[in-house]
């Protein structure tokens, strides 16, 4: 019997800063199901991204201690265990990560004794070649796929984010050697059974998440049963979130259209109105519905120096925060001589689509303002550039452009529309600044769009509301939860989900 238990333990420290930025210590416990531990066992770790190899040996307590690079998946082989295993080290550095392997002292001997011969493997390979590229599990009988000496039974059981059985989820298992895929659907208890050819490495995928897990099926004779339990958000929930974001965009589009229709006279004199708003802000006359959130957060974090501030100041609901920013700068620009600003117009539909293809919308404006008048001039200029139907949030593009154009800076701070989705979040891989993004939520709306949590988590940044700083988001690992504004969000395989 081969049982794999994974237990992640967080113990964050600030020591060894150089290591902390790139590596996590893995403690792999090797335990014998007949009792005791496995000491002096060599383990070889291979980085699946770059092929680099690291080696370690278990100590007298059966513990393998090794430093592994964050954000990488490792294939590892234990000296006295017959199957390859895989482990992913979170991109956020942990001071320690624990994993436990329980297996028999006779595992290797058993696998060797009952190992399939080359002739048997050849015959199996030839029979599998006759299969179609993809087989639904309910069609196994048609191809005489049954559990026997050549085929292993693998039962996958899925649980959703509330630890309930995940039903009606499509599961696709693809073999790397035989190049065949097997498709099944989870039943009322969240389970699906697959009959798989032995001697192959299998990638387990879902409709929206490819290569979610990996499972090796050894080429060993005899009837074998294997089981895997997976926690997964589920395609229906992913689709619900996608639909919810689409509706938010539609509603904002309608609001923009209504505002334009009802305020044509305002649009004609928009620049004058903007100048008046900024004049009031400069003179400290601004009145804000929730207080000056920008100043409150900045005053609470006086350690932030040499700021690069990125903000959407065109969307109507963000006008207030542009004024707040002006007031804060008026009071602090002499103490903050190295502050830099990048403002962006939310993209219209055509420019947003081109942006998704890797281009830029050309609506990102950078400046290192020398005084309050230069900032007011920049804000007024950007806000006066009217764009019809501006609803797509191109925050990521703005971050990329800001960090590319800016002179040396120490902090990246983004002021966001709290419940609006970042629609170009897929571009985040192009952000190369390496500096955490500190996100200020522009309002106290209860719901926070999960893309803001993802941005903070992925960049090892933080989230800041009027009342509180959330500094530990970047430390979160799969399955952990965080509560903000009385709503709870759970991290599930690189995705934040609002638990209702």
How does this structure look, described?
The protein is built from twelve helices and 26 strands. The strands form six sheets. Strands 19-18-17-20-21-22-23 form a seven-stranded mixed β-sheet, sandwiched between helices. The radius of gyration is 27 Å and the shape is elongated. The two termini are 39 Å apart. It has 500 residues and is of the alpha/beta class. The longest helix has 28 residues, at 235-262.
**Outline type:** elongated
- How many strands, which pairing sense, and closed or not: the largest β-sheet? 7 strands, mixed
Per DSSP, what share of the residues sits in E-state strands of 2 or more residues? 25-35%
Q: Measured on Cα atoms, how large is the radius of gyration? A: 27 Å
Terminal-residue CA separation = 39 Å
Spatial order of the strands forming the largest sheet: 19-18-17-20-21-22-23
Uncertain segments are 1-21, 348-362, 387-391
Mean pLDDT: 82
Beta strands, count: 26
Level of helix content? 25-40%
**SS-based structural class?**
alpha/beta
Put simply, the count of helices is: 12
Write the layout of secondary structure elements.
Blueprint: E1 2-7, H1 17-20, E2 23-32, E3 42-47, E4 53-57, E5 63-69, E6 73-78, E7 85-88, E8 97-103, H2 107-113, H3 118-129, E9 134-136, E10 151-159, E11 170-175, E12 181-185, E13 191-197, E14 200-205, E15 213-217, E16 225-231, H4 235-262, H5 264-268, H6 270-282, H7 293-300, E17 307-312, H8 319-332, E18 340-344, H9 349-356, E19 364-367, H10 372-383, H11 395-405, E20 411-416, E21 437-441, H12 450-458, E22 462-464, E23 469-470, E24 481-484, E25 487-491, E26 496-499
Parallel strand pairs: 2-8, 9-12, 10-16, 17-18, 17-20, 20-21, 21-22
Antiparallel strand pairs: 1-8, 2-5, 3-4, 3-6, 6-7, 10-13, 11-12, 11-14, 14-15, 18-19, 22-23, 24-25, 25-26
Helix pairs in contact: 6-8, 6-10, 8-10
